[in-house]
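fold description:
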Amino acid sequence: MRRGRHGRRRPGRPYADHLHRTAGAAPADKPWPGFLERFAPAYEAELDAFVRVAMGELDNPCDGREALEALRVAEACELSRRERRPVRLEEVPGL
């Protein structure tokens, strides 16, 4: 079991409703009812940055190489999920 600053996570149980807070507040039945509730602040910040970059108000904070690395991490995660095994980033080809 991994312990972090905000609680613990049980191995083999990947969904948010299986997370239990151990510090502070009592455990919630379902901490996040869905994607947007869980990731709303990050999603809003990303959309805001995208629009500002598109309007020329902000330099792109993520160049193409960083975007490719993010895609490789996502591909490694999907391969790990599909094959139910740890996947090293080196297993995912870059361009």
DSSP finds two helices and three strands in the chain. Strands lie at 2-4, 7-9, 20-21. The first strand starts at residue 2 and ends at 4.
